């Protein structure tokens, strides 16, 4: 079924490096912006998406901190975790809270602070999104390693090459250059991307999302507004690579898309603008296929034709995506909605003319979670 | 309003030290028991309460792990965190998920594994339940320190003494001796408790809940069963000691109780059996007052009269409580419900004759969260 929830306000900090600001400072900043944008409504509950604050900042109880520091009173709050999908899952819980009839207006925020730590520490912390009891994790599999294997297999099965991944990265960088909140605004070239330092064969530096500090927030309500949350879906999928029946499918993405389309009574052809979880360039390639925008194993052809550019027939990641807008993990799923609301309001970076229906897809782990939200301008 | 949810199954591992079992093993064990007890229903969603697995076991994505390893398919799952209230909050999210109409049957699990780490590491990890930006945390305040201050103030304001706290600890140990799943089953005496090693003045070793490994799980459903979740409430409160207007009140406990009573259409006098969050003996003392079982600043008199014993007029922590059943943080709120369901079914450790209405109260931080659930045998 569709939801009875609407988006009333959005907020977002700049994504990037915030040496002088704490996790809490970022979280409260985005939350205050969203509340201001919504006209300072009475808030009935708070959900915060976050992945690493416990292990990397010795800071949990983020829900209570928001309620306390913003003076919201005795409202129910919680932190929600589902690896890189934490933000999308937090929105999903907020939607359920409104649908339950217990709450009218809910604040959703996502936050992460990663740049204060060494890369090796972050890599270790992020590996909490793998199953510790599995042989894969103990054997040294990392997330770049996983998506690198998929990319090699994709090249083997299709006519795609490293150039097509570079075209994804270049498109997202070009989009980010118009987004003042994005982490990266420096121009680059296909050549620079293809020759960049190798991270894990065949993925180079530009094929991998960066470490990022940042926060984003939303206010949703049962009270109608101009933007309806037409569908909210969340699914869990295999937590281990060895459970995958097909290396070129991430089943959670496809299933979350099908469920969302069914709830919304829409299909992929109806979507005007998309934010996809491009943690790696290869992930965007698979996701545009899983979500039905392009046929299986043919996403690379669409990329080659420029169909996913902001002015293409299916604009993907007009924000710059995880690759160039940045990926403060718990904030990412919320920031996707921020960009789509701007699109539906008509004042986005890389505005898609007349955008009316928008889809966000947020991935956790190697396919352990996928959350999809479909928004409609009403 | 009341809820339309019922409890169909319960499961719990022994609480204590599980050197040879992983976090996942404990989590799946309790979950399988609950599913078996519920008659192996189709599960539509999973919520896992957990606090420390990211920082202490490098393991997140617990929701997806449960779905994957139990073969539940593409069900939505999430981990929920609210410090020591994580388990109660997970149940609350499951109740909202059923009330939303999106899900019929939901698995709720809570888990923690702490005994593999050194005490100092655990203390550090647990301090994530304080506000890192506050001067209190950087000044060295810990949880025993916080509750120690409250105890000293309580002694100052009332006629209570260390003996009354010891009586709480002794009662809970005596209850635990009849609970085969409890961490501690060794008999003790008031004298031993009062002379035990000091942790923080005036709280000795027996006044403080232990480090514990363990897991608990529940299956709830819209389909009626013999046990109705009559009320579910969750509130956030002050996250810092300096925000407390009164050292002898933990406002979140009182407010969560009042909201639950209102939803249930009941009062404290209607409750037959109680599980309270006795992270310290002093916390139980305050909670029995905040929940309206005894007048403010007079809980110690009730304890002295034995009114909170299993055969008293208001039996509290018949499981042994956090102090003696043990406190595997994320599991605690779920284990409270486990004990109360056993009470309502009539086969509990320290069975209260004819128990029909039960209340669980689960605290997070120094009062950052309090969740209350009221169950009724129908």
TrEMBL record, chains A, B:
**E.C. number, please?**
2.3.1.176
Q: Which CDD domains match?
A: SCP-x_thiolase
**Which biological processes are named by the entry's GO terms?**
lipid transport
Q: Which UniProt keywords apply?
A: Lipid transport, Lipid-binding, Transferase, Transport
Asked if the record carries the keyword Transferase, the reply is yes
Matching entries from PROSITE patterns are given as: THIOLASE_2 (PS00737)
> Which of the seven top EC classes does this enzyme belong to?
transferase
Key word Nucleotide-binding present in the record?
no
List, for all copies, the residue spans of the domain called Thiolase N-terminal: 9-222
**Thiolase C-terminal domain: which residues?**
240-377
Identify a single GO molecular function assigned to this protein. acyltransferase activity, transferring groups other than amino-acyl groups
Instruction: Specify one Pfam family.
Output: Thiolase_N
The protein depicted here goes by the name propanoyl-CoA C-acyltransferase
């Amino acid at each position: 079924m569709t939801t009875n929830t609407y988006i009333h306000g959005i907020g977002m900090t700049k994504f990037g490096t915030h040496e002088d600001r704490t996790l809490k400072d970022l979280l409260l900043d985005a939350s205050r912006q969203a509340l201001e944008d919504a006209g300072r409504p009475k808030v009935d509950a708070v959900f915060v998406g976050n992945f690493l604050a416990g292990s990397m900042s010795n800071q949990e109880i983020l829900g209570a901190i928001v309620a306390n520091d913003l003076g919201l009173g005795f409202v129910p709050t919680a932190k929600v975790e589902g690896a890189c999908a934490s933000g999308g899952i937090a929105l999903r819980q907020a939607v359920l809270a409104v649908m339950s009839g217990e709450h009218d207006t809910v604040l959703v925020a996502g936050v992460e602070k990663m740049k204060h730590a060494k890369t090796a520490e972050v890599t270790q912390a992020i590996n909490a999104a793998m199953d510790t009891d599995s042989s894969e994790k103990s054997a040294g599999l990392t997330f770049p390693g996983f998506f690198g294997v998929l990319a090699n297999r994709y090249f083997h099965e299709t006519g795609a090459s490293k150039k097509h991944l570079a075209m994804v990265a270049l498109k997202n960088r070009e989009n980010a250059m118009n987004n003042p909140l994005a982490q990266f605004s420096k121009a680059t070239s296909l050549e620079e991307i293809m020759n960049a330092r190798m991270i894990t064969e065949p993925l180079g530096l530009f094929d991998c999302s960066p470490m990022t500090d940042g926060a984003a927030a939303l206010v949703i309500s049962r009270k109608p507004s101009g933007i309806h949350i037409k569908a909210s879906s969340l699914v869990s999928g295999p937590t281990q690579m060895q459970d995958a029946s097909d290396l070129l499918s991430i089943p959670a993405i496809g299933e979350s898309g099908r469920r969302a389309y069914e709830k919304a009574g829409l299909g992929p052809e109806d979507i005007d603008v998309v934010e996809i979880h491009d943690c790696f360039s290869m992930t965007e390639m698979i996701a545009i296929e899983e979500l039905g925008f392009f046929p299986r194993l043919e996403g690379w052809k669409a990329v080659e034709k420029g169909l996913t550019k902001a002015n293409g027939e299916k604009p993907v990641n007009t924000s710059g995506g995880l690759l160039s807008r940045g990926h403060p993990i718990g904030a990412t799923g919320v920031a996707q909605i921020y960009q789509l609301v701007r699109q539906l309001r008509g004042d986005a970076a890389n505005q898609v003319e007349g955008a009316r229906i928008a889809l966000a897809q947020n991935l956790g782990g190697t396919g352990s979670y996928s959350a999809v939200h479909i928004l409609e301008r009403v």
